[in-house]
Amino acid sequence: MELSEEELRMLEQMERALVEEDPKLASTLRGTSFQRAARRRLVLGGVVLVAGIGLLVIAVLLDLSALLQTITGVLGFVVMLGGAVLALTSTRSPGHQASPKVRASGRSGLGVVDGGRQHRPSRPGRQRSGGPFMERMEERWRRRRERGL
To answer: Residue ranges under compositional bias (Basic and acidic residues) (predicted)?
Structure first.
């Protein structure tokens, strides 16, 4: 269900007011800070992973006592594992969403009305029951109104 011109205008005014009052919250809603933080975590995870591999190589190459070699190897493995987990989990963060939506006017919006989600096009021959929750609710409401009239 599309918004009327009046509703779109009011929504844009509310978005502008939100940006003026709390730019940090507006940035969070746009997803830009999430994307930037996820990229930082990915790079940091890669650096920590390489450091862990370096510790493992040092443990093998240096002529250390057996105990010290084992401790360095285990420490290197733990650091490497932590870096891999950090890098892999950064891609599954809330910043996973696409860039902000661009309206017909060419301006990007917060995407708050649609929850920031991009909807997939429905497959032919597939019923709507598998669609997002709100679409199903709107369809039920529409059917009830048609039956009542």
So the answer is: 135-149
